Amino acid sequence: MFDLKRMIIIFMFFAVPSLSAAVEKPIVTVSILPQKHFVEKIAGDLLEVHVMVAPGASPATYEPDPSQILQLARSQVYFSIGVPFEKAWLPQLARTYPGLQVVATDEGLEKRPIAGHHHHHDGHGHGKKHKHDAGFPDPHVWLSPELVLHQIHVIHGVLKEKFPAFAKDFDEGYGAFVQEVRDTDREIRSILAGRDGGSFFVFHPSWGYFAHDYGLEQIPVEVGGREPTPGELARMIRMARDKNASVVFIQPQFSDRAARIIAESVQAKVVTLDPLAENWRENLLKAARAMEEYVR
């Protein structure tokens, strides 16, 4: 990996005018778009929220660009969530910006191992090489309402401590969002009533916590963080036939080639679900309705 401090110095030389602009709102930074949604639900428009992983990019392989790294000089808090790129970058960024408060919103959660092989299913057990292998902790904790309640509790507490002038506003936003998360959970349970024990195929195993919460089984197509070999693909097709699969879910950040081969082989639908969509409630309800329609 290159010299981060040298890159910042070079970039600052060419970007000084952009840094001279007055910043009216305090800035916080998050890793992925759903976290931006969480912060804005609590803080409203009182803060400026920067996101590291650009839309359409994968947090498994993302590398921040120079302008993003430079912008961190203006950020007061970084809310991490445990996605893979953080492991490589956050230690460097923390050394470069010692005044930046890095807060792990996933700390204290008991994470499940991610399903990295099609013999590892995702229907049971959680509590509070593209970087994902069987046994690697599943980072997709923002797709479980239960686990989101923990994350927004952490965010709320840090924001109140860091920006006490806005404490009352943060309390109001947090209270309203907690209720929204609980309402979302109840609505999903209503949508998926009667689907308990159903299974669905998905290329990348993003929906393990969601599957656990609502009594479903996620069956990933990718094997150990890579596309399946022809032999593995043939076994997946046989499994899809045995389970009368009616859908294979894909997401924009990954190739859909293997998923489409399986779907065409068993006359299943290919449906896109984006686990990184910004509007958290709308996205989870969209996923629930898709599973209501296709999961057996």
UniProtKB/TrEMBL annotation:
The keyword Cell membrane does not apply. The keyword Signal applies. One of its GO terms (biological process) is metal ion transport. Keywords: Signal, Transport. It comes from the Bacteria. GO terms for molecular function: metal ion binding. Residues 114-133 are annotated as: Disordered. Residues 114-132 have a biased composition (Basic residues). InterPro entries: Bact_metal-bind_prot9, ZnuA-like. SUPFAM superfamilies: Helical backbone' metal receptor. Belongs to the bacterial solute-binding protein 9 family. This is Zinc transport system substrate-binding protein.
